[in-house]
Specification:
The chain is mostly helical. It has one domain. 81% of the residues lie in helices and 0% in strands. The chain contains 16 helices and no strands. Helix 2 packs parallel to helix 4 and helix 9 packs antiparallel against helix 10. The longest helix is centred in the N-terminal third of the chain and has 38 residues. The radius of gyration is 21 Å and the shape is globular. The two termini are 25 Å apart. 57% of the residues are buried.
Length: 447
């Protein structure tokens, strides 16, 4: 159900918005966990293939954010202003543009997947397995891109529950199909990594069809689908895209940097590259909780600025910061003291487990600052002021490369220096975006 976020208890509204968003995003994390656990049974080579493939998919998700983040900021403003005609026109034209964009990315993944693995320098077996996985995932691009725009429209209307249900449907489908297709249980063929990819593709198309049905049945309080193909409207598309592009660029840089870090890690062995995947699968739980609260506060900020209530928007931001700081401190404790039993879920390889344990213990020190970064990125996004988080994210992420090279070559560090580079840069980013938030210009941003 759509909600007016310009009145009512801020903590209550924020939690009601955040919990479905968090569970929705944790659905993706569960999906990755399931893939990681089952694929881990295939050996370290398969996990090593999954790590670079995941960074490639993150690049694609970042491009998806161009329209998905932009439509939340723009449509939530129109919703706060009660301008449903503009909300409708924006939604219709963005959906059409996104459908075309998804086909472009489908072919891009098909063409470029092999060369990315070759660049990293992993073994030929890892290259072959990773390419198979990505080629199949390429066919999920329309479901990924269009689905995220649908979810953005729901969130802009104050409804984070429907995206959660749709994500659960996709994850549930994946949970059932994963072991069947990976290991060839019953009448199903043994497809290994290809099976994991196929299970994900099927699940996301199921969610897309259901989202289409929900919107058709009146799940959005304004018209979303056009009865005909509308003429391309560059000014409208740009209005949405210019909000999402800075965050998208940040995500692309983030993923490219991790691909380069994988290249730095590759000489130490495939097990170190695989440890990235294990460590990030675990850390993704904390990341997705932070991102969920970021999505919630983006909707709160967008609608309240649209309703000319900047003080209420700021109070929403501070409330989100307080909540996420408490949660991420808990994750820090969990990652540091329970790293070994957690990583044992994914592998029994002693080398890979040792590397993944180091990863979790080191990144545990930066979880609170990661929470600051993610929630405040949501504040800036909801305000339509996405350049500050872009600058902080790009600079803070790129410095990981020289830091990793320096730390990895210091006595007593080795490959763990790469993990220290991630932690130090995360702390820097959290502090920087907090300072920029306190300047307060985001409250006066016009879209």
């Amino acid at each position: 159900m759509a909600k007016d976020l310009s009145k009512g208890s801020i903590p209550v509204l924020l939690i009601k918005l955040a919990l479905p968003a968090v569970f929705s995003l944790l659905g993706y994390t569960v999906n990755y966990f399931i893939d990681g656990i089952w694929i881990g049974r295939l050996g370290s080579k398969s996990l090593a293939a999954l790590a670079p493939a995941s960074f490639v998919l993150w690049i694609i998700y970042s491009f998806m954010d161009i329209m998905a983040i932009g439509i939340v900021a723009v449509v939530s403003r129109y919703y706060g202003e009660k301008n449903f005609n503009q909300a409708s026109e924006t939604s219709q034209k963005v959906i059409q543009f996104t459908a075309i964009l998804s086909i472009v990315f489908l072919f891009a993944v098909l063409i470029l997947s092999k060369y990315i693995f070759l660049f990293i320098g992993v073994s030929s077996e890892v290259v072959n397995r990773g390419q198979i996985y990505l080629v199949i995932m390429a066919f999920a691009m329309p479901a990924f891109f269009i689905g995220e725009v649908f979810y953005g429209i729901f969130r802009a209307s104050g409804d984070t529950t429907t995206p959660m249900k749709l994500t659960i449907a996709a994850v549930g489908c994946n949970m059932v199909l994963d072991p069947l297709l990976i290991f060839g249980l019953g009448p199903f063929p043994r497809l290994e990594l290809a099976g994991a990819a196929l299970a994900t593709v099927i699940g996301h198309y199921l969610a897309l069809v259901w989202a289409f049905y929900k919107i058709r049945k009146g799940g959005i309080p304004f018209k979303v689908f056009a009865s005909r193909i509308l003429p391309f409207d560059f000014s409208l598309i740009w209005k949405v895209a210019k909000v999402g592009i800075p965050i998208s660029v940040s995500g692309v840089v983030f993923s490219v940097v991790y691909i380069i870090l994988s290249k730095v890690a590759a000489p130490y062995g495939d097990f170190v590259v695989a440890s990235f995947r294990v460590g990030q699968l675990v850390e993704s739980v904390s990341f997705m909780v932070c991102f969920g609260f970021g999505q919630a506060v983006a909707s709160m900020v967008g609608q309240n600025l649209g309703a000319k209530l900047p003080k209420r928007a700021e109070k929403s931001a501070w409330t989100a910061i307080a909540i996420i700081s408490t949660i991420t401190f808990g994750f820090s404790f969990l990652f540091y003291f329970f790293a070994r039993p957690i990583t044992s879920l994914f592998t029994n390889d002693p080398q890979m487990m040792a590397a993944a344990v180091y990863y979790l213990k080191i990144v545990a020190l930066a979880q609170v600052m990661m929470g600051f970064e993610m929630v405040l990125e949501g504040v800036f996004s909801g305000a339509g002021d996405t350049v500050p988080p872009m600058i902080v994210s790009i600079i803070g992420t790129i410095i990981r490369i020289p830091l990793a090279m320096v730390f990895a070559n210091m006595p007593g560090f080795g490959y763990t220096g790469i993990y220290w580079a991630i932690t130090v840069s995360t702390i820097i980013k959290g502090v920087a975006i907090f300072i920029w938030f306190n300047v307060g210009k985001w409250k006066r941003k016009e879209i």
